[in-house]
């Protein structure tokens, strides 16, 4: 990230693993098992997190939970304000969402606009019985009345900061850090 510097590492590989394990247990507990449960990860880092959650749920319950991949690009409300043409990737939900409890999975929750777009995309696929939200990090600053049902870590941030999640599957390393904008003229 140009113009930013790492302020603090807030989760390491073990911290991420523990958060995913805890969230998996919470999902099972709240839903009284895995009956009619499915996970859908938001591209990009929500997908490996959804796959990890499904693996933990399988380890705990001994049952497979289907996992889908959601691309929300065309559902974003800032599509017309972006300088670059968006890269549209494929949504892959190989199961019906009708009547299911869907756990939507993302890495960082900020304003809530990404989640709003994801909800629109899921509703276009069918009518789930219930949609829940799991995020690795909730950094606050909501612009929409949306909250996560499962949170790995709540991290208060300023708007000038960013939360950067790096996962082995997408980045070749594993941690979560708060990044701050570089002061004008500062040397990193």
Descriptive key words:
5-stranded parallel beta sheet; Rossmann fold; 188 residues; single chain; globular; alpha/beta
Textual characterization of the structure:
By secondary structure, this protein is an alpha/beta fold. It has a single domain, classed as Rossmann fold. Helices cover 27% and strands 29% of the residues. The chain is built from 4 helices and 8 strands; from the N terminus they run E-H-E-H-E-E-H-E-E-E-H-E. The strands form 2 sheets. Strands 3-2-4-5-6 form a 5-stranded parallel beta sheet. Strands 1-8-7 form a 3-stranded antiparallel beta sheet. The longest helix has 18 residues, at 13-30. It starts with a strand and ends in a 7-residue tail after the last strand. The model has no long low-confidence stretch (mean pLDDT 91).
H/E topology pattern: EHEHEEHEEEHE
- CATH domain class: Alpha Beta
- How many β-strand stretches? 8
**Count of helices?**
4
Largest sheet: 5 strands, parallel
Q: What would you report as the Rg, rounded to the nearest angstrom?
A: 17 Å
Percent range for β-strand residues: 25-35%
**Poorly predicted parts:** none
Average pLDDT number: 91
Strand order of the largest sheet: 3-2-4-5-6
CATH topology: Rossmann fold
Question: What is the end-to-end distance?
Answer: 12 Å
Kindly give the count of domains. 1
């Amino acid at each position: 990230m140009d113009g930013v510097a790492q302020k603090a590492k807030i989760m390491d590989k073990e911290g991420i693993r523990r958060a995913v394990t805890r969230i998996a247990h919470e999902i099972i507990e709240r839903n009284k098992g895995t009956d009619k449960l499915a996970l859908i990860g938001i591209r990009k880092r929500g997908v490996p997190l959804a796959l990890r959650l499904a693996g933990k749920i399988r380890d705990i319950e001994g049952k497979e939970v289907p996992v889908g991949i959601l691309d929300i690009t065309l559902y974003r409300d800032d599509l017309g304000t972006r300088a670059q043409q968006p890269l549209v990737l494929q949504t892959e939900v190989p199961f019906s969402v009708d009547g299911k409890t869907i756990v939507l999975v993302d890495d960082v929750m900020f304003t809530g606009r990404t989640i709003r777009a994801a909800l629109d995309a899921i509703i276009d696929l069918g009518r789930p019985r219930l949609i829940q939200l799991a995020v690795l990090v909730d950094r606050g600053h909501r612009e929409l009345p949306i909250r996560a049902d499962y949170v790995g870590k709540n991290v208060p941030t300023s708007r000038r900061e960013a939360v950067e999640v790096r996962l082995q599957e997408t980045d070749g390393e594993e941690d979560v850090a708060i990044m701050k904008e570089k002061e004008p003229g500062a040397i990193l």
